[in-house]
Each structure stands twice: as C-alpha cells, then as structure tokens.
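fwd from M.: "can u put these together and see what the complex looks like"

so here's what she sent:
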Amino acid sequence: MRENSLLEMRGIYKTFPGVKALQNVDFTLCEGEIHALMGENGAGKSTLIKVLTGVHVKDGGEIFVKGHANAVSINSPKQAQALGISTVYQEISLCPNLSVAENIFLGRSENRIISWRKMNKRADELLKELGINVKATRQLASCSIAVQQMVAIARAVDMDCSVLILDEPTSSLDESEVAKLFVLMRKLKARGVGIIFVTHFLDQVYEVCDKITVLRDGKLVGEFEIENLPRLQLVSKMLGKELDDMADIKNDAPAYTSKDEVPVYEGRGLCSDEGISPFDFNIRRGEINGFTGLLGSGRSECVRTIFGADKVTGGTVKMNGKEVKITKPIHAMKQGIAYLPEDRKRDGIVGDLSVRDNIILALQVKTGFFKPFSKAKATEFANKYIELLDIKTASVNTPIKSLSGGNQQKVILARWLLTDPKYLILDEPTRGIDVGTKVDIQKLMLKLASEGMSVTFISSETDEMLRTCSRLLVMRDRKLVGELTGDQLTQNTIMATIAGGEKNAE
Amino acid sequence: MSRFNRQGGGILKAPSKMTDTNLLTTITVCVFLIMYLGAIIFLGEGFLKPQAFFNILNANAALIILSCGMSLVMITGGIDISVGGVTALVAMSCAVFLDEKGGSVPVAILIAIGIGLAFGIVQGYLVAYLEIQPFIVTLAGMFFARGMTTIVHTDPFNVSNPDFVALKDSRIVIPFLGSTNRKGIFVPAKVELGVVVALLVAALLFFALKWTKTGRNFYAVGGNRQSALMLGVNVKRTTFLSHVICGLLAGVGGFVYFMHVGSGSPQHASGAEMNAIASSIIGGTMLTGGVGNIIGTVFGVLALALIQNIVSSVGLDDAWWTGITVAGMLCIFLVVQSIIIARRKKRDLSAANKKPGSKEKAAAS
Amino acid sequence: MPSNALKPPKTSKIPNIFRNQIFIPIAALLILAVFNLIADPTFFRITLDQNSNGDPVLNGYIITVIDYGSELAILALGMTLVTAASGGQDISVGAGIAIAGSVLLRVLCGADSRSAELQAPIIVGFLASCLVAMIFGAFNGSLVAFFKIQPMVATLILFTAGRSIAAWINHNELPIVSDETFSYFGNYIPGIPVPTPFFIAVACFIIMWALLKFTTLGLYVQSVGINEKTSRLNGLNPELIKLLTYVILGVCVAIAGFIKVSRLSTINYSVIAKDIEMDAILAVALGGNALSGGKFSMGSSILGAYVIQFLTTTLYKFDVKSDALPAYKAVVVILLVIMSAPAVREKLSRLAKKLHPAKAAAENS
C-alpha cells in the first residue's frame, strides 16, 4: 500500500448474469481526502460501493485497508463496518420512530441494559462537536431530512470509521443544507477521515472534492486531481466521447415577444396549502419557461399548484382565454396539461406494472373508466414511444422498476406525451439520470416547443435552464421574486436575483 | 400530563417533542381514568369499591398477558392472531392432563409453557426466516390450535383435580384495601393469582422494552426493517424473538385463563385474539409497528373491560351490546389515532419545510 | 451498462410456467387430486340420483366442491380487489354475511319470524341485503381510504360487532322461510341436476370478467395498490377506488349471504359463514396474489377458492370432524405457503443449480 492511503482496491472484477459490472477497477483513497466517484448510470459506481460495503462479494481483485497487512475480504456489511468502512445512503436508513440518540447508538452498544442518561449525554456531546444542532432526545421523524442525514453521518463518525461513503447524500437537500453538510465533511477531512463522495452534481464535486475517479462501462477511466480536470473534460470522460455535446444545444429558440397572443395558460393569484405566496403565471404557445430558485424555495410547489397536485386554495385560471377550474390533477389533464413530477420513484412510476401499463396510464384515465384500450392498442402506443424516445427495455411487459433511472424517466415522459398535451410541466426531469439522457431530454423539449407545445421546466442545474428557457421565473422563500428574459438570462443575474434579499437580511 | 396543562392546548396540540408512543399512551390512560370517574359519578358506589376494580383485573388477567405478547409482536411490525387458539389449546390440554391423566400441577404448567413456546418457535421461524407474512402464518396457527383443541378433547368439562382447584381458589388479600359490607364488617379486597402473574409479566416486559438493548431492537425493526438491518440489528432474530415471546406469553396466558375458568372447552377464549389486538390498539400500539407501550396496553385492556362493565350496568345486558360497544370503542380510538398521527406528521413536515435550514444557519454562525 | 443487462437471463420454457402465478393453485389442485386418486378413487365418482322431491340431482364429492366452493369463490372475487387496492384484507366478510342474511330474512319474513308466506318478493329482500352489505362495505372502505387505517384493523371493528348487529336486526330470533322457491337458490332448481350456487357463481365470474374487460377497473386498482401518489397525479382518485373495491366486496358478501341463507332457509348468527373470511383470504393467497397489494390475477383467486373447498371436502371425506377440520387445513396451508415462499424457492433453485452445475453455467453465460 501507498503511504498514507486508507484504502486500496486493486483489479476488482464483478459479474452479474449477463453483465460485466466491474472489470479490473482500481481505486485508492488517502487519509483526509474527499474523493468523488463519478460516472454515468450503469458505469459501475454503485456496484463498486456495494463491493466495498459487503453488499456484493467481488469476483476478483484485492482490497487493502490501512492497518491490515494482507488483503481483506469483505463479505457482509458488518465486516465492512468492523474495518471502519461506513456508508450513508441517499435514502436515509435510520429508524424514524426512535430518538436521535438511539439512532446513533442502535445495534452498537455492548451493554445489554441501556442507560438513557449516559446515551443522551454522549449523543449530545457528539452532535455538538460536529456542529449538528439537534437535541439527542428528539424523535428522528420530526427532524428535517438534512438533519437526519447528518445524524446518520454522526453515527458513522462515532463508529470510528476511517472510510466514509456518502452515496448521493445531497439530492434531497437545499443549498444551505448542502453547505452545512460540506462544513461537516471538511471537519471530518481535517480529522483524517477519507470520504468517498458519489453525486450527480458537478458543482458540488468542484466545491468540495480533492480527487475524482471516473468509471465508464464498468472500467476505470482514470483518477485525477481536481485542478487538472476541468468540467468539460470530466463530462467528456464520463461520456467517453470527445465531442462537446453539452455545448451543442444552444438556446436558439426565438424568445417570445408577441405579447398580444392569448396565453395557453394563465393563472392569477394561485396558491396551495403547501404555503406558497399567491403568484401569477402565464405561458404562451411554443414557449419554454422555467421556475428557478433554491431547493425548497417553492418552485416545485408552484408547478404542483398549476397542475392541482396539492390542494389548491385560491386563484383563477384561464386556458386559452377561457376561465376553467383546476383543483385536481384530472381537471388539469382534461385541459391538456401534463406534469412530470420531481420525485420519480414516489410520484412517477407504478413500480410493479409493466412499461406498457405505465405508458398508457394517464391517457387511459383521461379517456375514461368505461373505455379501456385493448391490449393490442396499448402495445402499439407503448412500442411507438419506446422507439421514439429510445427506451431501453426488454419488452413492453417488463415491470418498470427493473429499468434504469433514465429509462424510467423516459417512460413517464412517454406517458405524458401520449396524452398529446398542449402544456407540459417538467419538474427536475434530469435529476439522477446519466448525462446522455439529460441531453436527450433537453433536445426533445426544444423540439416539442418548436412544434407548438408550451413547456415549463425546472432544474437544479442552472445551465440546463439557460440553454432551454426563454423566460425564467425566480423563486425565493416561497415567493415569486423576479422574471428574467432576453439578456438577463445569465448565471450572474439569476444568482443575484435568487440571492437578492438574502444578502440584505444577513 | 402537566406539560399539556401548562400549554393549555389540549391533547390535539400536544408538543411535538413528545414521541408518538408516549402521546398515545397518555391518551389511553386519560380516557380510562375519565371513564372510571364517570362510572363512579353516574353509576354510583359500585365502582368505588376496590373490589370492583380488582374484579375487572381478575377477569382480564389472561387478556393482559395475551395483549402484552400481542403488543410486542405489533411493535415489531407483525401480528399474531393465534393467541386465542393457543389459549384454548393450553386450557384443554391442561384440563385433560390434570383430570384424565391425573397429572400434577407443576407439570401442567410446564405443558402450558411448552405448547406456547412451540407455537412461538414454529411461527417465528416461518415469519422471520422464511419471510412468510405473519398474518397468514398465525392464521394457520390459529386454525391449527383450534382444531387440535377439538382433537385433544371434544366436549367441555370442569376440572376436579384437588391440587388444581386449591390453586384456582387461592386469593391474595390486598392489605388496607377493601370495603365494609352491609353488616358493617370490613371485607378486604382480593385478587386471583393470575393477576399477580399478569402484572409481573407486564412489568417485566415494560422494563425489557424500555431499558434493554434487545427491547429497543423491537422498536427499531418495527420502525423500519431495512434501516434496522443497516444499523446492525439482527432483524431476523429480533422478529423471531418477538414471536417466541408472544407464543410463550400465550402459553402463560392460557394457563392463567385456565386457572380463572377451571375447565377445558373448544369454545374457550374465542375472539381472544381480536380482544388482544383491540386492547393493544386502544393502548396506543400502532399496527404499522414501531410505536407502542406496555403500560398503554394494560390500560387498553382495562378500558375495554370497563366499557363492557359500564354497558351492562346501564342495563344493556343483551349479548350483542358487548360486541357492539367494543367495536364502537375500537372504531373511535382508531379514528382518533389516525387523525392525531396525520396532524402531527403534517405539522412536523411543514415545520421542517417552512424554515429550511434556519436552525442550521444558526449553528453554522 | 450494456443493454442486454436489462433482459432477464434466458431460461427454458418450463421454468416460465413455474414462475406464472396460476401455477401455485394448479399445483395444489394436482397434489390434492393425486392424493385422492391414490387414497380412494371413488372421490371422483359422480352419480345421478334423485332427491327427496324426486328431482334428479348430481351427487359426488366433486359436485360438493363446486357447490360449496361457490360462496367462497364469490367472496374471493371481491377480496382480490380489496387486497390489490388497499394492500390488506377484509376480515369482516363472515360477519357481513351474517348481517346480510339477517336483513334478507327480516325483509322476507317481516315482523313474524314464523310467517307462512313471504312478506316481500325475494328480489326485494336480496336488494335490501345488498344495499346494507354495500353500506357496511362503504363503512370499512371509508375507514381504510379516508382515515388511512390498516384494512385488517379497520375491518376488525365489524368483525367484532357484525354478528351482534345481525342478531340485533332480528331481535335475536331465528326466522325461517317456509317458501319453497327461496330454497332453490342454495340447493337445486327442480329438473336441473347441477346445484344452483354454481350457476350463481358462474354468473358472478362473468360479471367480474366483464367489469375487468370493459372498464379500466383492473388497471386502476393495481395502480392504486402499487403507488397511490402516482395514481393521484395521473388523475385517479385513490380513495374513491379503494372505497369502490370495498363496496364491490359488499355486493359479493350479499350474494354469498343469500346463498348461505337459502341453503338452510334460516340463519344461525354465530355459526353462519364461520371462519369464511379466513378461507377467502387463503383463496387469494393461494392464488399467488401478494397480500400486500398490487398486481392480481382474478382467475388464480377463483381457482384458489375451489382448491380450498376441495381440501375441505377431502378432509370431510376422511371423517375429520368439522371442529377439527381447521387443524388439518392449517397444516396443508402452511405447507403450500412454505413452498411458495420466495426465500424457500430461492433455496430450492440454488439446490437445483448445485445438482446441475453444467446447466446453471450454461444459463449464466
């Protein structure tokens, strides 16, 4: 082993029936280093992590851990923990019904009898030391997601882990929470903990990491110092192409100037029970606009109100100049509005149902209870969109849950395109999917708009929105605070608008 | 309690700091006390006599034990509907053993525990290690127990084994409690042996759930199986253990029941599983798992028994009223529980969403 | 990831049959059939006899199965939908049958429990009992759909109270219908040798088939059962659909109750349709439907119901007493469930691979 390295994986192989998931992959983690593991979906990141945490057992190769002279074998999560390798998953794996302190110490104490006082005291000390502001006796379910995630990290830290794996920890956090998490990560780094950071957010990688290891198709592309790998190069390494695909799609859609045309959708004073301030919104034919703002600023709640996904508490809506009532999703669907939700797994897919049923679902509901499609008709619909959107699935009968994230997203997109919407709302369609699919979806949006569809787009990655939208609505603290068009559409103006008030406040 | 009063918000606005478990338990205890108070005020002196209270205990000692086991399984996220059947089987087996085979009481106790354990172990293995739904497994368990009861002996009969009758009739006198009868003689309050066993079981289980590592594991598994596994809890063993303990308690409860009724019959303890589930739910155990408390369960049993007593005191002593009142009470509790939990969840969520990171900011600066 | 990763590993055609849902009930049926063939082939003998009225009737164990399996199969229809949509089971169907039957008799006999002639046309009685059963179904359904109470617990309320309510409807009297026509529905129509319940069941199957074929009920129910949030965002109303499934089950309960009452022309509140909820749930489970909801196969459930009845009849034939019946049934059910448990199947297939390493290697490559 190299000096000061905590963990070395050499020539790792892992095969699943039909797939070579990892081939001859090396990975090295040093003391006090934050190391990004990057790759498209299916590149082998998660398999590598699972081999390291003992969920999968490797087929070949060696793993060395500091303090062990010989190669170690990791056959179960417990063994991994004993070697000082801890993992914090995207989906929080703590018990919501227990207190914070219990979640930190559960399954670890040697004593058969629990001393609550001692446990709470130790937990409070630990949380204070790590700068996590929560009381040890609080029930976990009543804490915010970010705090829950940090409690999970605190647990890992307290278990004397030397290697901490963070598997997409930031995808459900807003920016200030992410910042807080980064403070904690740097604190741990200073203590000499090695952190493996898996994320889809490029910004975050460049903000906090020291090194990047890139995987592609189960093979190692290389390990790079962060300074030596500019963003564009990183993307091209992940994609395995030297072409500048991302820069290719420029926003060449003509900005909408004709203000006299009747908007496709026009809402006034809309608000919902999710606590957003009433807002006005309109969109014209063929226009792509977007809501931007920090996560939790209310941008998703805005589009959910438009679609009637949350309980609508006020406002008037006009479609093509005619007043209509939209309080439930079905009302919106009848008006030709389609909504691709933010949380694919929770709100998007119907896991056990086939790709075919998932595709026809919305149109079927729209058509009516007494007019079911025949199987042949449904298959025809499904096949058309599988081809059109290049959905990779074994057959139309495959359950959607066995598809990869990007393909699931395409199926949901297909579901809504099948309803032939006049107005399409896409809430984070590109989150958690690989770069190639992201580009596909953006291209598709531009194409649809040029054919006359109106599109509202939300993305955490501002450059995606800049590339596609001709108008941006900026949200802050659940309020609509600005509208940017034309020359204002630059990173800097968006940042300034988002930050605007906050700077004065502090 | 005092926390509620100080805030003046009543139960529905209970502070978020309180865990779900404590909140639900508190409600049950309050409801029981209010009902008892109401009974004393409106239905007269009868309920004021300590013996009236102890009679409720006497009649429901077995149910307390069964409900404790049920709560444990429900906290772990499962269910065991075989307890009633096991009770009947235990009573019948012991009766046959004592009367026809002339066996001794200690061996009968061992038989009772053995039957309970056997059910617990088999069901636990099927649920925990073969991952079959607990409902189906224990449903089959119940079928099996009820059927076996008939196979052991078809007809009901009373046990006349002298040792057993002595045990059955022995009472424990509660010091300083009692009432003066019409002739002015002080009659001390008495309880059956079963009550002592029941309270002992409840106390033991309460302490185990609160203060032992294994006890907390039950809550963890019930809260989120997957997480518990990730946190290093042996989920399978914990699930297994919950069923074994529940089976064991069904055996013990079966013998206590047997001591109370002193006979064996295939019709014994019919519907006991449903009463146990109802008591657990009224006592604040959530069927979804992870939330519950033995003290709540004990009060759940008492509340259920009390309402039946009250109903018959009011004069509604037709057989069907018992079923209807129990169901009504269960219905009210379920609805109240679901409303409270939904409200709490919503408020907690909106509290977490409304000020994203305000606390974190404070901590960072 | 290469695209072929998404395709399931290629296997020969035979295992595909094993993976199909309907395999479980078919296998169970085959085992039972073979067992009967070996033990006593007369089981399959069907004779054409005359009943006491001199009408031709078919006789034989197989006829008994399709006769008495009818109520069960009808209940299984509704239970399958409820299971799929709400991820839980209605355990109050037995009590519901008691209520529906009681209402039926109350309408047919009027105030006089021994009236010589019908006080209302049979169809009116049936519709009244249907309406009441649907109302009780809606009660269960709204507890589940709107108050988000787990189905088993929500229906526990009616399970506890149902038979009491049934007794209360007729003031605990047991009315007897003396009309001849009424008994045709549960027995034989003169001149037709096949038991009438079978025709009623087939009619129900056809209606259910049409419901699934000509409406989108199947897709909606599955989609709500798998992911409620997604269903809502796709314009469905999950609460309404859950409620609907419980109301449909209510109709099934009324039909089953109608047959049950018609068989005897009277009712016994505590015994009628006893344990039938357990049989109905087992039918759904035996049909390979996940008891946690989601995808379902109606055909498998129906077959499952008849397999359960097949089992019951087989046991009766071997002189098992009706009270002891559950014990045997439990053993068979446990064996079936163990065999179909994913954990066990996995182990078996691993074992098979060990025995045929060459074939397994070929499959993997």
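replying to her w this: The first helix of chain C runs from residue 13 to 19.
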